[in-house]
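Hi team, as promised in this morning's meeting, here are the two structures we talked about. I've kept the exact order from the run log so nobody has to guess. The first one is mostly here for context; it's the second one we should focus on when we meet again. Sequence first, then the predicted structure tokens.
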Amino acid sequence: MFSLVSYYLADTFKTYVFTNIIDNLSNKTNNISIDSLEDTLKKADDLGIDYLVCRSFGNKDDYDLLKNYKTKIVIWSHNFSKFKELNWISNSNSVIKYVCVGKHQFDLLNGHPIYKKATYIFNGLPIYAYKIDEKNSNKAICYVGSIIKGKGFDTCCKVWRELYDNGYKVDFNIIGSAKLYNSSKTLGKYGIASPEYEQEFIKYLIDDDGKLIKQVKLYGVLGHKEKIDVINKSYLGLSASEEETFGLIALEFALLGKPFVALETCGYKDIVINGKTGFIVKNEDELYDMCVKILSVENQKYMNMSDNSTVEARKFDIKTLANDWKNLFIGLNKNEELLNRNERIGLFKRIYNIIGIALNKR
């Protein structure tokens, strides 16, 4: 997401990307190699950057480090910050803004002192990169994401198996792996999750002989084009995650005209319009019921839901949302009465999985 935003902001600002992995970054940005947060802060000060946008750090030492540098910090919160971290951010004079990725995530902060520093800017996607292809579509359920406990994959497996046992012999397309965000993760026999977690869900996916049921399709981690091809071949998306700040996967399904069924969590409530583009439900039983409803609905009603999904999804075009970031920076400058041609703004993403952006006003 950092690289997408930096790419479009480069049309307005002179953009720097601070990263420990410079390969494959856009030549629209000035890409600077760093090896730590401290290294980034030193280089940001040397460049005279006014604002550095970072993902949250998770430990107090990093927040204490900020006060040693001039650069002002904007936290871009892609995850739910723990209460103690919200306190650190709220009390830090270096952190001047806390940007949530969804409105419902932002609303949860009401009542905490951080709320005064908080706002929200939705994440987005380049909508031109999502092309609907219904030629090979069939009544398949599709899961996309990391295959770990917190994402509720075991619940999705249980729902699919209940559908299968009740006569809905639909494919279960599974895109993802426990290695999605951790390439060193040890996987179990079936190659998609840790051995311990695999034991919690594999019983729903195998027959009496211990073999995968033929309708279960394990795709692993896919590139963008291959992922889009599988979603296009599916009928609906399913998630039982309870920890989404923004429903990026639901947005991908919507861009491809696929209804989405998900548990009621912050990120999905920003994307899925209940009954119009999919269903937001409260529990496992309702997940099953809404899957049945979509699988059983007459074709015209499904097409209406599909059309609604694509229309609503266009609101999350990354070009539009990058403009929201531009306006945020301009607003910060105006509030501080600093607006001039020489100001510099920056963003930084935490090391190990780091892409940061520093922005010089053109």
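And here is the second protein, the one for discussion:
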Amino acid sequence: MSRVILSILLFFWFTYYASAQKPGRLLISYMRSPDIFKAELLHARNQGNLKMEMIIQVIQVQDLVDQKQYTEAEAIGLGLLNRLSECTGCSSFVWRGVAVIDVFDYMGQLYTELGNYRKAEYFLKEAEARKIKSALWTTGRLRNTRLQAKFYLQTEDWKNALLYLKKLYRGIRAGLEPGDELLDSYNQYYRGMLLVALNTGELDYAKKYLSRAQDVFMTNSNGIITASKARFWDPELRYLTALYFVADNKPEQALNVLEGLYDADAYRVKIHAYYKLSKLDQAIKYAELLLSSNLRQVKEQFPKLTENEQEAFSKKLEADLDTYLTLAIQSSGNGSSIAFDKLLEYRLVTKGIRLNLLRKVQ
């Protein structure tokens, strides 16, 4: 009954606020083209309107981060921060829900996604301190709380993740979240709490938050999606659902949920599911697929990654290799075949990456 009530409430929240989106969001939609950004920026400069010039740059940084154009976003963001440090009073600039100091949030988001966690934490904490100090913290903008929760989830700091997820929930319940971001915030809260519960061994809580996450997803899909149609869920929700089933010793259900997904995260869960089913051959098969997927990423994407992203990725490579070796050793007595050529190639690649990173550090 409570699930039905939650779905109805979320649906009406979404419907009521759909026509009241933040002007900042509408402005981003209008200015999505780089040419329009340039034209609006030039117009503000020609008018001598410093406030609008800086606001437009904040929106530009947000848009570029959302599009994962990190190099350009970083250059504009750092330039804006430099101007902000030299401008007395500019920190108070606000226009239709967009604040100049929001740039600290977006820089924190940028560095979180790049894996540069030291810089990410600095900018997110700076944004939090500035917003608490000013009246901007009470304008209904919980972005900083959401971003810090995401940061701590990504860095697997479950204690702080829980702290900021609870702050996010209190802000939502207090009505501080604008309507166009409400469902996104509920979505992040329930999925984040599910991940924390799974990693702290709280299986009963994990089941509760999985149920809530499914409710929010169905509400966001206007009722088209039902819980019995898992193949229509977004990949993240399917991945989290499968993680729960593995933790709950229901590996077959986990595999059903992941049917049709062929990314690295899905492979990792499938490996654990087949291992729990004592199907070592299948577990090794997906471990080899995971190694092949990692090798493709190294060849196609690794050179384009930042130094921090390369280091984070190399740690995943090592962990996946350890998983494969563990499975190979356990199955060696069963006559299972091991792809030694692939294993050798993988080991050479990971060692090469490590040596390259060490040279950069020195």
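Starting points for discussion:
DSSP finds 17 helices and two strands in the chain.
Residues 6-26, 222-228 have pLDDT under 50 and may be disordered.
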